[in-house]
Amino acid sequence: MSPVLASRDNPESLKLTSPIPLTVHPAAVYLAGLSEGSRPTMTRSLTAIAIMLTNGKCDLYTIDWSKLRYQHTAAIQAALLKKYETTTAKKMMSALRRVLAEARKLELMDAASYQQAMELQSIKVSQRLKGRALTRAEISALIEVCINERSWQGIRDVALIAILRGTGLRRAEVVKLKLTDFDCQTGAVEVRSGKGGKDRTVYLPQMAIPFVIDWWKVRGKKPGALLCPVRKGGSIEIRHMSPQAVLLVMQKRARQAGIKTFSPHDFRRTFCSDLLDAGVDLVTVQKLAGHASPITTAKYDRRGEETKRNAVQNLRF
User: Fold this and answer.
1) Contact predicate 15/58, CB 8 Å
2) Bridge partner list, 230
3) Under the phi-then-psi rule, with left for phi > 0, alpha for psi from -120 to 50, and beta for the rest, what region is 102?
4) Residues with catalytic function
5) How far is CA 302 from its chain centroid?
6) Contact yes or no for 297/282 (Cβ under 8 A)
7) What is the C-alpha end-to-end distance of the chain, expressed in Å?
């Protein structure tokens, strides 16, 4: 029996007695409402929870989420905190909470049972900031190795770096861009169905526009994805890259440039930090980043101690 379950529970007791339509399945309904970028992560989270709760007897679609009670949720939270980092455990518990909320809305679970199941001690996450900001020298080194490669893949990667650095887009947003989403005259980039299903317009800096135009000339004007896979032979496939491909590109270019490893999301942190350092107000940076709250934007600030030290020099006695 799974150590997550209370001793009196049988893993089979949490199994659905018969399949239910996805339109009334709480996990399916919850996942359907997520963005394409968030869905895979939360699917894996719910699958892991279902497996832990049933000792591998169920997955996220065969477990009966409506049967979960406090003994289950409290035990799974404790187990997740032992197995994963605090931030990961909190994200997984958030997915569980949302699924049980859907079960309540679908009238598969009464309000009292839901309230009791979710009456858990909140998970406190360390305030230590994740990720880092890239320096100008590092960004220049990345662009240089791509240009020196003298290949179509190198031209594409320069355009990718220019967009990530110049707009702060999430990699899930970058890979969804279409050719028609980029205006070569103004540098406007239309982000459609970003996180939370929201659209927004961002703008490339003038000096970054030529990098994307160079790729556009190589790619051609055929409708479809803006950033595309390039085969080893040099042929371009007019289809969208995957978010994983973006990560692999950045890892490869970091090795070639001889710089410290970073994630595509670190370009987003750099984008927010540099704008704030340039004196752009927090609300404007929030809108450009596509954050729901300026509080989230503030968490992306990676300017460090030197910025704080310089700031106090403005005080006069």
Assistant:
1) yes
2) 236
3) alpha
4) 170, 195, 265, 268, 291, 300
5) 18
6) yes
7) 69
Q: How far is CA 121 from CA 58, 70, 253, in A?
A: 26, 11, 43
Lowest mean pLDDT among 111-125, 133-147, 240-254: 111-125
Identify the DSSP state of 268: H
Q: By CB neighbour count within 10 A (0-12 exposed, 13-18 middle, 19+ buried), where does 235 fall?
A: exposed
What span, in angstroms and rounded, lies between the C-alpha atoms of 245 and 175? Answer: 9
Of 219-233, 281-295, 302-316, which one has max mean pLDDT?
219-233
In angstroms, rounded to a whole number, what is the distance separating the alpha carbons of residues 202 and 188? 6
Amino acid at 216: W
In degrees, to the nearest 5, what angle opens at C-alpha 149 toward C-alphas 147 and 151? Answer: 90
DSSP at 189: E
Q: Is 96 exposed, middle or buried (0-12, 13-18, 19+ CB in 10 A)?
A: buried
Mean pLDDT of 105-124: 91
Amino acid found at 20: I
Residue 2's CB is within 10 A of a number of other CB atoms, namely 16
Query: CA 73, CA 51: separation in Å to the nearest integer?
Result: 14
Q: Which residue has the tokens 């339109």?
A: 23
The mean pLDDT value for 55-63 works out to 93
Rounded-to-integer distance, Cα 184 and Cα 145, Å: 24
Contacts of 73 (CB under 8 A, 6+ apart): 96, 100, 117, 118, 120
CA distances from 66 to 18, 57, 102, 105, 306 (A): 14, 17, 9, 11, 52
Of 147, 14, 27, residue with least CA distance to 75: 14
pLDDT band at 234 (very low <50, low <70, confident <90, very high): confident
Beta bridge partners of 178: 225
